[in-house]
Design a protein that fits this description.
InterPro entries: Acyl_CoA_acyltransferase. It comes from Hyalangium rubrum. Helices cover 32% and strands 27% of the residues. The protein is of the alpha+beta class. A 12-stranded mixed sheet has the order 1-7-8-9-10-11-6-12-5-4-3-2, with helices on both faces. β10 (194-202), α5 (211-225) and β11 form a beta-alpha-beta unit. The model has no long low-confidence stretch (mean pLDDT 94).
Length: 291
């Protein structure tokens, strides 16, 4: 069963979607989606905060308004022509040169680490949930216990989320196998020519193989092969994690502050800015004082 649900990364492929198509898939996955101002918005984080399902869809100021009267906050990227109407930014981490991205795009140190990974790790695309259901939960518990960047899910929630990946063909799930055992994996998707690498989990025991370098590099190569993909976003700026920032810098990623229009309930804004300044920065681009 496990072998029947993997394919070599050199043969990996997945569907690229329009904003409307991705919104429909997100709804099918159980996410709350609203159509407003000619665009589709999804609820993220605490109930009541919304952003476009396609984070970097560029909206006009009149489109970037509160998507529902009951929402306590929202944000949306603006068109370049409307940058003057922005009151914040979204600090995205993106490859500066996806079209020409290859081994020579890496620092010499990172190239050596990639070669080590390629010797030790078999990178595959998962085409079904079997491997994640068998080995994924323990890996995620290990990874999140180490990084603490989000709450550890229950086993039942994790299994449900793992199955959702494979209800359609728009998620790319790349995994690294070390002597046949799952050492790490990441996921991503493409909307209107922009690839988003979202979640990545690596087992502590697998880190010496440089599995993270191999998986991220390989995902970029897959995106390069897909027609019409012109941009790869690898998450948001984690200013509080200098080692992670150096890692992404070595891989050729840069931080771009995309102008946005945002609003937030004053009480929620004050609480997030005080209690979670780095999250506030990623939401609004404002460098709240973490002290």
């Amino acid at each position: 069963m496990l072998d029947s649900q993997v394919r070599d990364s050199s043969e990996a492929t997945f569907e690229t979607l329009t904003e409307k198509e991705f919104a429909e898939r997100r709804q099918a996955e159980g996410v709350r989606v609203i159509h407003h101002g000619g665009h589709y918005w999804e609820q993220i984080g605490a109930p009541g905060f919304f952003q476009p399902v396609h984070l970097l869809a560029r909206l006009k100021p009149e489109e970037a308004t509160r998507p529902t009267p009951l929402s306590w906050g929202y944000r949306a990227a603006l068109t370049p022509e409307a940058a003057g109407a922005a009151n914040g930014t979204v600090p995205v981490v993106k490859l500066s040169n996806l079209e020409s991205y290859d081994l020579n795009s890496l620092s010499s140190n990172r190239r050596n680490k990639l070669r080590k990974c390629q010797r030790l790790v078999r990178i595959v695309q998962l085409t079904g949930p079997a491997l994640l259901l068998e080995q994924g939960y323990e890996l995620v518990v290990d990874a999140l216990s180490r990084t603490q960047h989000k709450k550890i899910p229950t086993r039942e929630r994790y299994h449900s989320d793992a199955k959702r990946y494979f209800r359609g063909k728009h998620w790319c799930v790349l995994a690294g196998l070390i002597d046949g055992k799952l050492g790490g994996y990441l996921d991503g998707h493409v909307v209107d020519g922009i690839a988003y690498g979202l979640n990545a989990y690596y087992a502590s025991w697998a880190l010496p193989t440089n599995i993270s370098t191999g998986l991220i590099f390989e995902f970029a190569q897959i995106c390069r092969r897909l027609a019409k993909v012109h941009t790869l976003v690898g998450g948001l700026d984690s200013r509080e994690a200098p080692k992670l920032n150096q890692f992404k810098d070595d891989l050729g990623y840069v931080v771009e502050h995309v102008p946005i229009k945002w609003d937030m309930n004053p009480l929620a804004q004050a609480f997030i800015r005080w209690q979670r300044p780095h999250a506030y920065y990623r939401l609004t681009g404002s460098a709240a004082d973490p002290n």
